Amino acid sequence: MTVETTLDPRPASPAESLRDLCGGAVHLAGDPGYDTARMPWNVAVDQRPAAVAFPRHAQDVVDVVRAAAAAGLRVAAQATGHGAGPLADQPLHDVVLIRTSGMSAVSVDPDARVARVEGGALWQDVVEAAAPHGLAAMHGSSPDVAVSGYTLGGGLSWYARKLGLATNQVTAVEVVTADGSLVRATEHANRSLFWALRGGGGNFGVVTAIEFRLHLIPDVYAGMLLWDRERAPEVVRAWAQWTRTAPDEVTTSLRVLSFPPLPELPPFLSGRQLVVIDGAVLANDASAEALLAPLRALGPEMDTFARVPSASLTRLHMDPEGPTPGVAATTVLEDLPEEAIEAFLGQVGPGSTTSLLAAELRQLGGALARRDPAGGALSHLEGAFAGFFVAIAATPEMAEQGRADGQALVSALRPWANGRSVLNFAENQTDASTAYDRGSWERLRTVRAAVDPDGLFAANHPVPQERRPA
Prior knowledge:
Elements: E1 26-28, H1 34-37, E2 51-53, H2 58-70, E3 74-78, H3 85-88, E4 95-99, E5 106-109, E6 114-118, H4 123-130, E7 135-136, H5 147-152, H6 160-163, E8 170-176, E9 182-185, H7 191-197, E10 206-213, E11 215-216, E12 219-228, H8 232-243, E13 250-258, E14 273-281, H9 285-296, E15 302-303, E16 306-309, E17 326-333, H10 338-348, E18 358-363, E19 385-392, H11 396-412, H12 438-451
Parallel strand pairs: 2-4, 3-4
Antiparallel strand pairs: 1-2, 5-6, 6-10, 7-11, 8-9, 8-10, 12-14, 12-15, 12-16, 13-14, 13-18, 17-19, 18-19
């Protein structure tokens, strides 16, 4: 008698079917390289997807999306993972995380003043490619943030009050959609998708390339003013008053900073509590100096405002580079009256013991407040200031305290909040509808239903499909 044994050819798990894709650069839970592959830029975030894939080009992305859909898995795109918290707060056991960091090519057309970047390109690479031509991009405050996530979420640059949101500078997006197609969306082709991608986040596909306008800004009057935190009451009040009449050419930020005594920090930062105003002025030197005169009259101990190459602005904000553990809270304020200033100072001003590394108020208004008629899903921002409050989270205890202090500041400022959200600043699960007006939100849901009817894509800030009648 002969007994035949038939081996079951089916993979042990749905994710096994992806293992040979991307030239083998796919890591499943339990693989030796999985923990490194799943680690986002914010190393305090613990994201555990079913698999992590590192595509080399657009066809790799197509292959992964098709294979994931066939295996009954979902897909999430991530370049650096700066804002990974909201994604990690969701169930990821059935999600293939596509890390696009290996797709980082950048090209600049100086005559058309347009940049084309792949889905994992960083802003610093774009800035360096544009600078020799006297051109500037609408980058954010960190050099190592990826263009794609920043831009899909809106994008606040140092030129924002003059030029608006970065997402409305986009001229084309190449994206792999839920059916595994690589499509190009512009104002002329796939128009609804093009509209949704500009501000709607990662709900509509995996971006493989973005093209956007550059601006003829070879240099700019920019820098920072710095005081000891004891001066915060007068500095915050003076800045709040100054912002009320500041022209659109001015974009600034005010931060109360508390640095630990670390030897790698320069002496003017290490172990100190400070208040800092930084930003850029798109004006000639004489006009910029006149605009800044009321702030300079406060006698800062450091004043670096000067005419500088526009490429230097990527590091103006002194944001940490490289993987960093952090937690954050955010709000949007309609105004900053005296009572709000008192509430802000009560939490982070002189004598406070907050664990927050930075309590930032980002100046909005100007072009940011005006609806761009040719813009996308997020054409403008309502509010006068965006608050972003961040703490280092090197241990679970530090993370818990940082969250508590961030939320305490949000709560203290709630009477002046307008209920809106800047999703690029949201490090926790947030009701995404609060970032949009009602009409835009309903249109986003309609587009999502059309391009991703089965909910293949998992995004940091989900846009649910519009409910359709049975």
